Amino acid sequence: MPISGTPSRAELVEHLVRTRIAGDVATPRENNLSHYRKLANGDRHYWLGLELGDRWTDEQDVLAVMAERVGVNDDPEHRYGQDTIDPELTVAGLERMAGRLRKAADGQQRVLFATGHPGGLLDVHRATAAALRAAGCEIVVIPDGLTTEEGYVMQFADVAVLEHGATLWHTHSGEPMKAILTALERAGRPLPDLVVADHGWAGYAGQHGVDAVGYADCNDPALFLAEAEGTVQVTVPLDDHVVSPRHYDPMTAYLLAEAGLG
């Protein structure tokens, strides 16, 4: 089942479909449409740390962007059942992200990693951080003692996460990233040159004016809207919590190889 080494593009596409990181994904169509509707109706939980104003109040406009950038079914009458992520769009997103990682490595930039989906993506971020550190980048160490209403903002294996009740916490909120960037500014420390993240961690960073790239599922439209508007530089479409986090290893290997960091 696992792919050893770095897959070719065709091998990665096949792997993404086989493991349901892309292709026919587990997230049902009705869940996708519900989230698009809630975002359009102004539910800030689905804005992922962004300020969308009144620019995306029509859920059909949101669906159109998701069809273009993610590969979900573009038929508004398809309301139940299977939905999809186009694996070619996933790989294209990885290739765009690789270009930004290469720029960070060439400039030995300060990079901050964070995840709201530690059960799926923690090791993707950890491996990317390790590769950038080896290339001479500074991996930003977050200030101690940061909290939000949901819990403690911590850092494990170079990746900022939310901890709650001695457990790494799944969160869509932008508040943890806000806590980090605010604390850095108050301490007179420079902000990151790049944030590599997901969920509200990526959204808030981009909204704050920091270069941000990230990953998002087909039921999390905000980061794709942000990419369309230029607030987030790259958003890679994928199922962000498949059966095993090891399924993401070939994807990570491909990303790092494309960035010249493998």
UniProtKB/TrEMBL annotation:
This is Phosphatase. It comes from Streptomyces dubilierae. The lineage of its organism: Bacteria, Bacillati, Actinomycetota, Actinomycetes, Kitasatosporales.
